[in-house]
Every structure is written in C-alpha cells, then in structure tokens.
Amino acid sequence: MRAPILTVTTLLLLSLPALAAPIRCGDDGDGGACVWGKVEGYDAASVQIRGLTLQIAGIIVPHRRDLCQNKTAKTTFDCAKPARKRMGELLTKGIACDIVDVAGDKLIARCAVTEGDLGQALVASGVARADRTGPYDPDQAAALSGKKGLWAADMIIPKDWDVIRKKSE
Predict the structure, then answer these.
(1) What is the pLDDT of residue 120?
(2) What is the spatial distance between Cα 148 and Cα 72, in angstroms, rounded to a whole number?
(3) What percentage of the chain carries pLDDT values higher than 90?
(4) What whole-number distance in Å separates Cα of residue 161 and Cα of residue 147?
(5) Is residue 149 helix, strand or coil?
(6) Interval 23-34 mean pLDDT
(7) Which DSSP category does 31 fall into?
(8) DSSP character string of 74-109
(9) Which DSSP state fits 152?
C-alpha cells in the first residue's frame, strides 16, 4: 500500500490553526428563544441581530449625552464611546443571545461571544456597570479595584457612576 501524496495545498491547510466554531445557541430545554449569527448593528448596550434589537441583560452604560473627562490627557469624550468600542471588538466573530425577558417593547437578552458572556466582559473591562438585578457585581468590584476603563483614577465620570466609585473606596 502506498503512502498518501501530500500536496502543497494539503500541507498549508494542515499548518493553519483551527478556526473557532461559530457562536450558536445551545439547547436550553426551557423553551426559551435564542438568536445567533452575525451582528447587524450595535450600540453600547444593545445589539441588532436577525432584525431584532436586544438589550444586554444585567448592565448599565452611560448615555451618549454624558460627558467624561480624562484629567491626564485633558480631553472630554462621550462616556458611552469606550463601551461601543469594546462591544465592537467582542462582536467580530458572532454572537448567540438567549432572550430572557420582554419589557414593554424591549427584548432583554443574555448573550455569548467567543470570549464568554458579553455583559460580563463589558462590566469586567470597566466600560459598563453591573445592574443591581444582574449577576455581575463581582466583575464590577474587580474593575473598580483594578481601576479599569471608566473607573480609572484619572477619569471624571457621570455622577451616578461616581457615587458607586466613592462607595467602594
């Protein structure tokens, strides 16, 4: 029996790192609705996928009209901009969202990206706050103590965020 012939193409394909599997919904068994795929649009606290706008459960982000200031750089910016930037980085490989609640005309969802839980990633990086009803308090405490994102010592942040920062000190 002859050994298989390996072509240059086969060798190149074998040397490539394995691509991550696309993010998909799991079987939750509770009859919940799940949507997955490529994101069509997003802002700091919501994503649009398959024609639906889903609010990310368990997080609060500053409003676009809130201004933050970096004391060191002496610059003022839209406080939601870091959350939008981080959200864009996390959404590059797709998303899977379990719709967990409907509040009026809003669909509330817990979403997963390749890095894990989307809400948790935003809170842990300091660009979103943990909602008091959500599971991300430990991630917020770590971001606060690590002075990450908007919790950085040289940041002037919205008043409601500053109250939380002062309580943690």
Answers:
(1) 98
(2) 15
(3) 66
(4) 13
(5) helix
(6) 63
(7) -
(8) TEEEETTHHHHHHHHHHTTT-EEEEEEEEETTEEEE
(9) S
Name the band, by pLDDT with cuts 50, 70 and 90, for residue 26.
low
- pLDDT recorded at residue 24: 63
Q: Determine the length of the chain.
A: 169
Say which residues have a Cβ less than 8 Å from residue 142's Cβ, sequence separation at least 6: 124, 148
Please name every residue paired with 59 in a beta bridge, in sequence order, or none if there are none.
130
Q: Give the mean model confidence (pLDDT) for residues 138-150.
A: 96
Write the single-letter amino acid at 132. R
Q: What is the pTM of this model?
A: 0.81
Cα-based torsion angle of the residue sequence 102, 107, 110, 112 in order, rounded to the nearest 10 degrees: 150
For the four alpha carbons of 146, 149, 150 and 152, in that order, the dihedral sign comes to positive
List, in sequence order, every beta strand (DSSP E) within 17-158: 33-37, 41-42, 46-49, 52-56, 59-60, 67-70, 75-78, 95-103, 106-113, 116-117, 129-130, 155-156
What pLDDT was estimated at residue 168? 86
DSSP state of 48: E
Which residue's structure tokens are 């890095």?
115
